Amino acid sequence: MTVGQIPEAAQRPRAAARTGSPRSADLPRNSMTARRHRAFYMFTSPWIIGFLLLTVGPMAYALWLSFTTFDGISPNWRYVGLDNYRELLSDPVTWDSLSRAGVFAITSVPLSIVAGLALAVLVNRPIKARGLFRTLLYLPAVVPPVGAGLIFKQLFNRDSGAANGVLNIFGIDAIAWLDDPYARYVILMAVLWGAGNVMIISLAGLQDVPRELHEAARIDGASAWRTFRSITVPLLSPVLLFQAVTGMIASVQTIMPLLIAAEPTPKGVTAIPQTNYMYMMHVFAEYFALGRYGYASALLWVLFILILVVTGLIFKATSGVVFYNVDPEAKK
Fold first, then answer.
1. Structure confidence by residue, pLDDT tens digits, 176-224
2. Which residues contact 127 (CB under 8 A, 6 or more apart)?
3. CA 109, CA 3: separation in Å to the nearest integer?
């Protein structure tokens, strides 16, 4: 049957389809691009609004406060320009607390990374009840900081703590764990207690390492340690870099010394052991114990700038040693 022999009724739907409204695939390219843009901003708008209101807004307000003498209550405040910044640069307490925070970061971050990686290697092996061990080791990481602080405060209490109870069994006198010079070790133990978070991230990185590389190294006669050092660690370098940066940022902002202090109140913040009086404790004291909102805001902005600088230095120093396993096809 030729086209001329097709009934007119059968030809009418096709003609209507050709002359009807265009499908979405036939829309102009600009219209489709605009639709995608609208969808993108619609789905990201909750985060954008939250970021502007809960992050950018408070940061801008704190920046403005850092140029004033505002105390949070009295309306009698004044603009002082850079006086708060000049004061903190000449304040020995600020520099001492900052140096303690730096030492704590240099000590705690490598320890937590090594402990988390060691646990990840252990639970990555094909053992029985592996899922149970992973859950138990990760469980302390989900305990809120306030709960963890109270737990350690009770464990290391001089009179009724379990730590001194164990020492008494061996005839050792009770130790004032929450005072100098032992308070710093309690904080380090609290950091290692929550190493399950690092373990989970390292475990994800370990499972992404190709098994073929390990098998090839074993065939070539490489030992387990040589395989781990020459294959596993280089492939985990992006994960380790991520943990180092985030760990550094978290360590300098830690509030654990305040939570396990003998007097964890705004007025008792100055009673924190000297070894644990770090930068954020100094900020907390200026904010809530002394009511110097302007000076404390200046302290926070200096910390923010220092974190940006240190993060940039870390990325710069590790640019030649971090291995990114990028698919060559992905670059095209």
1. 888 888 888 888 888 888 888 899 999 998 988 888 888 888 888 888 8
2. 133
3. 79
